[in-house]
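Quick bug: ER membrane protein complex subunit 6 output formatted oddly.
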Amino acid sequence: MARMADTSELYKYFEPTVQHNALALSNIHTLTSWGVGTAAGILGLTGWAGFAFFLASWAVISGLVLAVKCEGRPSVYFKSSLMDVAGTPLLNTLLSYVLVWTLMYALVYIYD
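Here's what came back:
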């Protein structure tokens, strides 16, 4: 006879709450990528320096989300905890960052 799964594990996450947390996290990442992209464009960063700036700011933002919003316990708010906070939205955020970075760089330095 098959053993029943632990009921506390079955009801550990309430799906609407997890989706709300994921949406809030997505908004944080998108808005900060726009701000960081704007800063990189205005500062005139080009090439690898711009990508290094993005990665450094990504680490700071993810650390702040983990420390402040998740209170150091991301597994309480997300199913795959650290991967949901720092890993999964990285590519989408990078694309937004590059878009705003190049736009701001062009507005400040190319169209003088």
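Actually, after a second look the formatting is fine. Residues 1-6 have pLDDT under 50 and may be disordered. Closing.
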